[in-house]
Design a protein that fits this description.
The structure holds two protein chains of two kinds.
Chain A (H helix, E strand, L loop, with lengths): L2 H19 L4 H12 L4 E3 L2 E4 L3 E4 L3 E7 L9 E8 L6 E7 L7 E6 L5 E9 L4 E12 L4 H5 L1
Parallel strand pairs in A: 1-9, 3-9
Antiparallel strand pairs in A: 2-4, 4-7, 5-6, 5-8, 8-9
Chain B lengths: L3 E4 L3 E2 L4 E8 L21 E8 L2 E8 L8 E7 L4 E9 L4 E10 L1
Parallel strand pairs in B: 2-8
Antiparallel strand pairs in B: 1-3, 3-6, 4-5, 4-7, 7-8
The chains are: A alpha+beta, B mainly beta.
């Protein structure tokens, strides 16, 4: 094996390792929020995240995010994003509320790869961003099952 | 067309905020699972969900592989007048599943 082959191999190994080692960085969440909501500063609060303290399986965890808003024509939530900082892909879902939305409450079931923080970001109609996060303990992550399967 | 369940109250008062629930049967393959041969199952998800009432959006969701299989949503609608509540799920392969319920407003 000559030097060129060895370097190409090393490069290949580095490329395959990057996605595995880059899991769960807070910067990933920041980048994901920026990609969805643009370069704006977020303020803490206004959102209530309801999720279990401990989930035995990360395959389906019920999460409710509700934003304190009257949902009137002049003061309403436009978008709500749910992120998880320990997942391979931090963005879980974004919900856009239309004119007939009765409240800025959104419930869904998410996959979580281990113990981590779940983050909700709300965009108001005046352009401000609000953020809340909550810690959740996950006994068996949604991605852990894959290693035992084969 | 995938099997789906929706829950919309049959009737409501004008201005009342009611809960809507919607679920669709879908594996939401996240690209991290392997089949029995050890090959990766590619990402296969529902990408968009929209609930419409009186021809305007109630909620529009962009789904990602981070959602659990059989994606379930619950949200609220403010009743205004009798009309259809329509649901639409769009698979990444282009399949669209529709569902509809009548809401009677007193």
């Amino acid at each position: 094996m000559n030097r060129r082959n060895a370097l190409t191999m090393l490069g290949g190994i580095a490329v395959t390792l990057v996605p595995l080692t880059a899991l769960g960085a807070e910067s990933d969440v920041a980048a994901a929020i920026k990609a969805r909501f643009g370069e704006r500063s977020t303020r803490q609060g206004r959102i209530t995240l309801k999720l279990p303290k401990l989930a035995e399986s990360g395959n389906s965890v019920p999460i409710t995010a509700s934003v304190d808003s009257p949902m009137s024509q002049t003061d309403r939530v436009v978008r709500l994003g749910i992120f998880a900082n320990g997942n391979p892909r931090p963005l879980i879902a974004t919900a856009a509320f239309g004119v007939h939305a009765g409240s800025a409450t959104f419930t869904t079931n998410v996959r979580l790869n281990g113990t981590q923080d779940v983050i909700a970001v709300a965009e108001m109609n005046d352009g401000s961003l609000w953020r809340t996060q909550a810690r959740i303990l996950v006994t068996v992550g949604a991605c852990d099952a894959m290693q035992t399967r084969f | 067309m995938a099997n789906n369940r929706i829950k919309v109250p049959e009737s409501a008062q004008r201005g009342e905020v009611i809960e809507i629930r919607a679920m669709i049967m879908h594996p939401m393959e996240n690209g991290f699972n392997f089949d029995t041969q050890g090959t990766v199952i590619p990402v296969h998800i529902i990408t968009d969900f929209v609930c419409r009432y009186l021809d305007e959006d109630v909620v529009r969701v962009k789904l990602e592989p981070g959602l659990a299989a059989n994606p379930y949503f619950s949200f609220h609608l403010r009743a205004q007048q009798s009309g259809q509540v329509q649901f639409e799920w769009t698979d990444q392969d282009g399949t669209v599943t529709h569902a509809m319920a009548m809401l009677t407003v007193a």
